[in-house]
Amino acid sequence: MLDLKLIREKPDFVQERLNLRNGDYDIQPILQLDEQWRKLESDRSQLQARSNEIGKLVGQKMKSGSKPNDPEILALKEEGNQIKARLSDLEPQEKDLKTQIDALLLTLPNLPHPSTPVGKDEAENVQVRQWGDEYKPRTEVLPHWEIGEKLGILNTERATKVAQTRFVMLLGAGAALERALIQFMLDQQIAAGYLEVLPPFLINTQSLTATGQLPKFADESFKCNEDDLWLAPTAEVPVTNLYRDEILSADQLPIYHCAYTPCFRREAGSYGRDTRGLIRLHQFNKVELVKLVHPSTSEQEHQTLVQNAEAILQALKLPYRVVELCTGDLGFGAAKCYDLEVWLPSAGTYREISSCSNFWDFQARRGNIRFKEAGQKGTQFVHTLNGSGLAVGRTMAAILENYQQSDGTVKVPEALQSYLNRAVL
RNA sequence: GGAGAGGUGGCAGAGUGGUUGAAUGCGCCUGACUCGAAAUCAGGUUUGGGGCAACCCAACGGGGGUUCGAAUCCCCCCCUCUCCGCCA
Fold first, then answer.
1. CATH 1.10.287.40 assigned to A28-107
2. Is A236 exposed, middle or buried (0-12, 13-18, 19+ CB in 10 A)?
3. Which nucleotide C1' is nearest A76 CA?
4. What does the pLDDT read at residue A250?
């Protein structure tokens, strides 16, 4: 959520930054409502002040012996009643305006960070670095779903029977590989200083609103209608929300968490895209990194977060590149974002395997996650960051392709061999 | 699902109609004492909003109501805990 004060005080600046995004965002309605609201607010609070005064006066007089039906008391009561009548007119108006303003605020995305490259769309993202070209296979390889089916470790047809399209079933070594990857990733990130969390996978509306999935992207998540619960689309949601509505002390920061969860996404509007294989599923596994940090450190924390995600790809010797998203491609809540893209030789392209975003104070405002500096008055919002460390299914896809051997088997990356107790799939 | 208890400041925990934004304790901050620290003593310490400011308003789980006045009384809802039942 953007700071209403900032919108009010620097409307041109805010509008300019929003215009760099993909989509039409207009702060004018908010500015107008805000002006009306402030007028009502000050009228109402003046009336309220007089009303409070009357209440106190009556109390004092009663204590010093006045009778309830003394003329003086009756006059005060009468004035009190008149004020109440006017308040009952103003109050709902004010509340209604406030509700409208809040609702509009929740639909505005974050401002891009000044350092985020300006651009219209994906095509203008900026490559930051590329790693591991020497590990790219030199011969033709089968797409991961074909080699997976061939090896009998991946089955789409039966998963579709059990559930729907965009679900897969892993068998034998496939299931073991998925589990090994989860374990490996968690071990690495725990060693890097992240505290593991195993959060709820069903989460409430308030939590999804705090991290920015709601209200705008309700279509993207599965909902349990009976219960105000949604299937988590990413561990970012439950983990960031661990600290919702809390005031932390500055010395608790930074907080680093890693979490394995399955992720559930409806993938509405992606019909026909990536219909085969492990790339785009309604359910996939992910190890997520989440940081809550002091604002003064958030940029460097972002860099180390990206490095922590990269470390997994490097340990697995999977070729990848790092891309910084331009303003037009930035996610709703992100101020700045790096994508890690892994090499998929069957397609001859890099595919996103991790998205590392700095949300600045955007999520913290929505979730009311604050901290207090010892000895200082007031509170500040933390900065929240997160990134995949990594998407497990896509990692498996990358391994099945990059580690294919000419005899139709797949080599197990050295870093994983001890987890799987085998060297070849 | 049945029965009961409860939701108050960073935390713990008082408070049942009147200047209570809220006792007390812990924590934290400042000062005194000390070479320094601990201990002790004194003072301070909720959050959010409006206003250039003085200052004002709001908030005791949420929403309504009664009243000149509600943390306190009434109604509805939510959540947590305990016991019983059921269950992985």
1. yes
2. buried
3. B68
4. 84
